[in-house]
């Protein structure tokens, strides 16, 4: 009798627990998706699109809902089931995809008054003849904490805010979206900008480890080893990889001694100087003689526009924010970080480092405002939902740890270069297209070159990485000639890798 009673109570407890769990699952928000019809004219041809924007439930590996994941999806109306699909995201590390969306990829784009400040609204939102929607369907992803994305259930922000956490959540979204759309057996691409390139290297391996091989990865404004952008103690690589971009900036602003035949020829000379003279000098440290130091400082002046005396005072090492402030010190201007063609008012002429980024100031308002106008009016997103372009909370904290980057509980690097290397060596058909702006001081082109040259790839496999260059900054699409080149480069890449 006692055993039967215990069995009854146990079964009752299980039923109550199951019912409670089911009730809790039913109470979790399902997400909202808003649909609309869009179109874009590319090369004189109209492409009709089925568009949807909003959120869907993101599930963990055990199908437990963990987040509302925000996205915008453009699918060609009545398209072929084998039409390629591109998953795109920005960086930050925590910004939504609004930059790429209204800047270059979507059916509409906002016109920027490059290379200076765009006047306040009304902004010009036009048909985007440079969109990739003639080549592929497009999914723009907003990581949790941006756009309409947020954690649900037992999940917390920190479950998504970190290098590994982010790779996992984006990878989960892509896998589940492919299942939702029945697109597993179709050419698949990742497209990331800025931190999104570091993310895409990790996601490509994450998906590959789950049996989902992508055809290609497109990187705009790439960085694969974040620590080299930080000018950490004893890290001379940071100074070396930034110098060619300092030189390109000085070349653009007519601050160099000899501009040569072209920007490309000038930068080839700068690369040789950096590798053969500057690197050796920094490696010597205080063993460098005064004669050697003076001779090197003079060459640094000739290439960068900063005075020999300044380079000597800086011990031959100038961080980027110091360069922004110093190049136009005599005229009271400061130089852009996202695009060094831009200049703005120097708020403090005595400051050692720049206080603001003129390019960022020039880009943000037109792109963010134009996108929100398009999102709520054209894409029909619900006005009861607040769209977050980027996380600005003072409590925001990103976990920079990544598998292989931490040894003895010490952060040795911030890099997904090993992920990219492993993915390529295990899948010799994986291709990368890396698009670099010469005037991008946020993610410098020579830094990517340095990373690629240290992957340990054999000559044949290294051919799977294509490097393209633009006379623009971080947002290549702000520069009209570059946006056309970008369109052509991506089209050619998709054509070559989707067959």
3D architecture notes:
The protein is an alpha/beta fold and 499 residues long. The protein folds into two domains: 33-227 and 364-497, Rossmann fold; 229-356, no CATH class. It has 14 helices and 16 strands. It has helices at residues 2-27, 98-105, 163-181, 195-209, 236-252, 263-284, 290-304, 308-313, 320-326, 358-377, 417-426, 445-452, 459-462, 480-497; strands at residues 33-42, 45-59, 65-76, 85-89, 108-110, 125-127, 137-142, 150-151, 188-193, 216-220, 333-335, 343-345, 406-407, 410-411, 431-437, 465-470. The chain is globular and about 90 Å long. 45% of the residues are buried.
Describe the structure concisely.
The chain is α/β, with parallel strands linked by helices and 499 residues long.
Helix content: 25-40%
Mean pLDDT figure: 93
Any idea what the CATH superfamily of the largest domain is called? Alpha/Beta hydrolase fold, catalytic domain
**Poorly predicted residue ranges:** 16-24
CATH class of the largest domain: Alpha Beta
Could you name the key traits of this structure?
39% helix, two-stranded antiparallel sheet, Rossmann fold, signal, Carboxypeptidase C (Cathepsin A), Peptidase_S10, 18% strand, 499 residues, 2 domains, hydrolase, alpha/beta, 14 helices
How are the SSEs placed, and which strands pair?
Elements: H1 2-27, E1 33-42, E2 45-59, E3 65-76, E4 85-89, H2 98-105, E5 108-110, E6 125-127, E7 137-142, E8 150-151, H3 163-181, E9 188-193, H4 195-209, E10 216-220, H5 236-252, H6 263-284, H7 290-304, H8 308-313, H9 320-326, E11 333-335, E12 343-345, H10 358-377, E13 406-407, E14 410-411, H11 417-426, E15 431-437, H12 445-452, H13 459-462, E16 465-470, H14 480-497
Parallel strand pairs: 4-7, 4-9, 9-10, 10-15, 15-16
Antiparallel strand pairs: 1-2, 2-3, 3-7, 3-8, 5-6, 11-12, 13-14
Helix pairs in contact: 2-10, 3-4, 4-11, 5-6, 5-12, 6-7
